[in-house]
Write a structure and sequence with these properties.
Neuraminidase, alpha+beta, Double Stranded RNA Binding Domain, 32% strand, 515 residues, 26% helix, 2 domains, five-stranded antiparallel β-sheet, four-stranded antiparallel β-sheet, 28 strands
Length: 515
């Protein structure tokens, strides 16, 4: 019997015990021993059996039969049990022992790594405890200095108001003229612009990772450390998009205001930002082509995507793509120059074939190449609103299911669905996510603004939940985050509602540091 044959049915073999295997006396004739084997009946018989019951049968001497069976047993022992079964079982035992040894070794290594990781974390906490406490105290002192400075400015303004009141009521003409000149040089030339940075002490943003979702011995996920750099106030009612052209120039647009703003944000932390009005149009999304010479804009009130020369934004631009019956929404430029755009004929909670919605793939010359609506199994989207192409070529699309519900659908450049992100793995199916906008950083981490929960989801490029990001409660709140953009300079821009009574929007600049 070959080894392969043995291994095929070894699990089916069994040994059955036979009771009373040593019958040496005849069960029919008391005291008579077996002397032969009846070959006719295949039964052991005694002398009385031979002359009575088995009379006329053929018989085989018991000693000859015993010798033949001994030879058979020895043959099985040498050729089968010792040469095949014993070798096979020995090999199986060695393999089992090797497996046990490997598992024990792996367990010991895992325990060591976990212990080392724990000790390293504790050491890091102890090492940075004093530094963090000192940073907190420094923040308090800076806040107190800021309060004193503001109080001093307030006192100066009150004093100027008192001076104005006295000069206007009792001063001469020369005194009024001199006061006017002083006020002009002091206030008009230094008046705040409509987009000013809130002068605050920058603090680490809150970072809420789900460590139980991590495989500490698996993929090496690169998660950045976030640091709030500045907050800029706008007079837009609802931000629809943020894109960064250069490190000191950021573009924003709001669908409730027919104005596109071009912000120059200085690299110095506490410098004022300057606003430029670009064009009167209801811009939903913008994207820059390679070389940063042309900007593409989608408009919610017309069925077209238009291209503009960045240096001559006062012009009307040129038609890039006519999307026919579809409204173009979110837009992004691919690494190879193609343009991906979300498009939909109308908004509906139900997925029907007669309602067109999907993702357009457009060439760099404006020709529609594909319209990704469904894959081989089902429709891809309910209402695609915005998208981004990740570093690995995956197109990540925010898909709205209702006004307060959404998910992320990842497809390849051929329109095949790769994976979806519905919610963090630990959350309840009833938990809604009001996903508004999506972006990615230089290592492929995906950020999605969750407006109803006042947070930003951070997931890996394969769809694994990494963390929630929110602002420090005592200083900055990410209040209903809307537009997002991760630029090429290591900054994350978050557009959200401000806490001012008029419900305008603010743009938060967050620096991302990778270890």
């Amino acid at each position: 019997m070959l080894h392969e044959c043995v291994s095929d049915f070894i699990g089916e073999l069994s040994i059955e015990q036979v009771e009373d295997i040593k019958h040496e006396t005849c069960q029919f004739h008391d005291g008579k021993t077996f002397t032969a084997n009846c070959t006719t009946c295949d039964q052991l018989v005694c002398l009385k059996c031979i002359v009575s019951t088995h009379k006329g049968h053929t018989f085989q001497d018991l000693s000859e039969l015993l010798e033949a069976n001994v030879d058979i047993i020895n043959q099985i022992k040498k050729e089968t049990l010792e040469k095949q079964w014993l070798v096979y079982i020995q090999k199986e035992r060695e393999n089992a022992q090797t497996g046990v040894d490997k598992i024990r070794e792996h367990n010991e290594q895992t325990k060591t790594k976990i212990q080392n990781t724990y000790l390293a974390c504790m050491e890091k906490i102890k090492r940075h405890k004093d530094m963090l406490l000192a940073a907190l105290e420094l923040d308090v002192s800076k806040a107190e200095e800021r309060l004193a400075l503001v109080q001093g400015k307030n006192n100066a303004v009150q004093k100027d108001l008192e001076t104005i009141k006295n000069v206007l009521s009792m001063g001469s003409a020369c005194e009024v003229i001199q006061l006017s000149l002083r006020l002009q040089s002091k206030y008009l030339q230094n008046s705040p612009t409509c987009l000013n940075e809130n002068i605050i002490s920058a603090r680490k943003s809150k970072f809420l990772p789900r460590f139980e979702d991590f495989n500490v011995l698996g993929d090496n996920l690169v998660v950045p450390q976030l640091d709030v750099y500045g907050v800029y106030q706008t007079n837009l009612g609802l931000l629809s998009t943020i894109k960064n052209l250069f490190e000191d120039e950021t573009w924003v647009a709001g669908i409730q205001s027919p104005v596109t703003y071009r912000f120059h944000v200085p690299t110095r932390k506490h410098s004022r930002a300057i606003k430029y009005k670009v064009k009167k149009a209801f811009v939903y999304s913008i994207a820059f082509t390679s070389g940063n010479t042309t900007v593409l804009m989608t408009f919610v009130n017309v069925h077209e995507i238009r291209a503009f020369n960045i240096q001559h934004m006062d012009e009307e631009g040129v038609l890039f793509t006519d999307t026919r019956r579809l409204f173009p929404l979110g837009i992004d430029v691919s690494l190879n120059g193609d343009v991906f755009a979300c498009a939909s004929a109308q908004y509906s909670n139900k997925m029907t074939q007669d309602t067109e919605r999907g993702v357009l793939r457009i060439s760099k010359t404006g020709k529609v190449l594909n319209f990704f609506v469904s894959d081989s199994e089902s429709f891809l989207f309910s209402y695609p609103s915005c998208l981004t192409e990740n570093v690995d070529g995956t197109v990540c699309v925010i898909d709205r299911k209702s006004n307060f519900s959404g998910r992320m659908v990842a497809i390849n450049n051929l329109g095949k669905k790769l994976f979806t992100y519905e919610r963090p793995s630990y959350s309840s199916p009833r938990d809604e996510m009001d996903l508004k906008y999506i972006t990615h950083d230089s290592v492929g981490n995906i950020f999605m603004s969750d407006s109803c929960n006042n947070r930003v989801h951070m997931i890996s490029k394969s769809g694994e939940f990494l963390a929630f990001v929110i602002g420090p409660d005592e200083i900055i709140l990410i209040n209903h985050p809307l537009a997002l953009h991760a630029d090429l300079y290591g900054n994350l821009w978050i557009g959200c509602l401000s806490e001012s009574p008029d419900k305008t929007c603010q743009v938060m600049k967050v620096r991302m540091t990778y270890k």
